[in-house]
Amino acid sequence: MTWRDSNIHNRILRDAEAGKYGVIAAIAYNIEQILGLVQAANTARSPLIIQFFPWAIEASNGLLVRTAADAAKHADVPISIHLDHAQSEAMIKRAADTLPFDSIMVDMSHYEKETNLAKTRELVEYCNQREIATEAEPGRIEGGEDGVMDTAGLQACMTTPEEVEEFVGTGVDALAPAFGNVHGEYGPRGPDLDFERFNQIRSHANGRVRLAVHGTNGFAPELLQRCVEAGVTKINVNRLVLDDYYDHLRVSVGKMPHTQLIEEGIQKVADLTVKWMEICGSAGKA
Ligand SMILES: [Zn+2]
């Protein structure tokens, strides 16, 4: 067995593909959220991916990532640690060299395609030499999120089957295609995904990489289930699992002891995450 097969992130997504369910890949910003996510995975008997924006590394000098890895190690279920949208060579090397990531998204989508491919290939190899799995973004997903470079001004472009081929060739383990999904918030019309395009992408990928959906803020359960049915295994979520936590803070801060505020906050994250694990079909699968 090679490192690629035993890598926990790859294992979680391969099992999801075989079992036809989606795994929640949740962004965490603080320790309460990490604790709530892990509690949800334990409660639901579900695999989980905890992911961070590069912001978390900068803001805590890596402490949040090490904390999550420690929590994952002590969980009863498989949990992997992923870096979302690492957009500079320096950040990718820092993460791969100094932090316990199981997977890193090598996001060079702000470059033109040839440069994107060349840099992706080189950085995927760098990560692989350290037994870290990788994800890339063929095409360009619209919008920006928490320190991730906004693509406004750059043309967002839907992923083509040709790009799938090119990116599979870089050696990545997962792809995050652009098929109408948007980072950040959708406008009043809500998400409008191109499933026909997604099906083409999936058939071209032909089981060589796992597929991720990015930009799920405001998704209805039915839409996420449709993504899972179409073959998405990595479900990137942000507000879908964190909204109740922020509502709780808004309503309760200053009105209860700080310890209670924190404990109830953890529970809010856990409860909402369990709900989405059930929707994605991963509950009971770990
Ligand atoms: Zn994304």
TrEMBL record:
Molecular functions (GO terms): fructose-bisphosphate aldolase activity; zinc ion binding
Organism domain of life: Eukaryota
Listed Gene3D superfamilies: Aldolase class I (3.20.20.70)
Residue positions binding Zn(2+) 1: 85, 183, 214
Source organism: Aspergillus wentii DTO 134E9
Function: Catalyzes the aldol condensation of dihydroxyacetone phosphate (DHAP or glycerone-phosphate) with glyceraldehyde 3-phosphate (G3P) to form fructose 1,6-bisphosphate (FBP) in gluconeogenesis and the reverse reaction in glycolysis.
Cofactor: Zn(2+)
Protein name according to UniProt: Fructose-bisphosphate aldolase
